[in-house]
Design goal:
Order of helices and strands: EHEHEHEHEHEHE
Radius of gyration: 17 Å
Shape: globular
Mean pLDDT: 93
Helix content: 25-40%
Structural class: alpha/beta
Strand content: 5-15%
Low-confidence stretches: none
Distance between the termini: 27 Å
């Protein structure tokens, strides 16, 4: 299996859960990235303490203030990342930040739909737009015509809950706004894969599994997967995918999920 080898990676929502797990696992790689950009809403806040501790020990972690529901915050983050990278590009953009509101079809509101959709769907769209120049630069700096995560890629963290064909764990929670936002994210990812292929950028949607995080474990049922298991699996998948997989919906073990 090819080893994932990236010079630079940006993870959104990096202060906890899967985002923090990804940062930790990138650090443990045989050849860690030169730059690990960790985006989070409130870098100085209590919820970012663990990330701050990690960054104080590892100079290759750069914490970036980033609210993916705010276009001006995204633009500022892209500028900051570009300054750190100098003349080189960004290899890997992982749109991990996401929110869920536990509402049923009867209690769903305009406000919740807007809030969840803005973070989970519009955020990754705007991130792709803002970081496209840096991703293109990374792709141009890698020889060869194929696509890979070591070259340039956008990874959108979706969920099996966004599969229309297979209404995953409906009996455990309707979470309508979340499901709709992830189904829309899946379509966005397909659009990105078609639009950005000519620039040498791979785009896939990943379902991390049902993971024991603040968000995944909010209900009464304990999710089956640990953050470590999920992240290890996802990084293995990212190391092996190529242009054949661009525009596909995969889970943390590399299995194709129905749209």
């Amino acid at each position: 299996m090819a080893e994932l080898s990236v010079r630079s990676v940006l993870v959104t929502g990096a202060n906890r859960g899967l985002g923090l797990g990804l940062v930790q696992h990138f650090l443990r790689m045989p050849k860690p990235p030169q730059w690990i950009f960790a985006g989070c809403r409130d870098p100085k806040g209590q919820r970012a303490q663990e990330l701050q501790n990690l960054a104080s020990k590892h100079p290759n972690i750069i914490i970036i203030p980033l609210e993916v529901a705010d276009p001006s915050s995204i633009k500022a983050a892209a500028t900051k990342v570009g300054e750190h990278l100098g003349g080189s590009g960004l290899n890997l953009l992982i749109n991990n930040a996401g929110i869920a509101r536990p509402k049923s079809i009867d209690t769903e509101t305009l406000e919740t739909m807007n809030e969840v959709y803005t973070t989970n769907t519009v955020g990754p769209l705007l991130m792709g737009q803002a970081f496209l120049p840096l991703l293109k630069k990374a792709a141009q700096g890698c020889p060869g015509s194929g696509l890979s995560c070591s070259k340039a890629a956008i990874i959108n963290m979706s969920s099996y809950a966004g599969s229309i064909e297979d209404m995953y764990v409906w009996e455990y929670g309707q979470v309508v706004s979340y499901r709709c936002s992830k189904a829309a994210l899946n379509m966005l990812s397909k659009c990105q894969s078609l639009a950005y292929k000519e620039h040498g950028i791979l785009c896939v949607v990943l379902h991390p599994g049902w993971v024991q995080t603040d968000m995944g474990g909010a209900g009464s049922f304990k999710p089956p997967l640990t953050v470590d298991d999920s992240v290890q699996g996802m990084l293995k998948v990212l190391s092996s995918i190529s242009e054949k997989e661009t525009g596909t919906f995969l889970d943390w073990e590399g299995k194709v999920i129905p749209w």
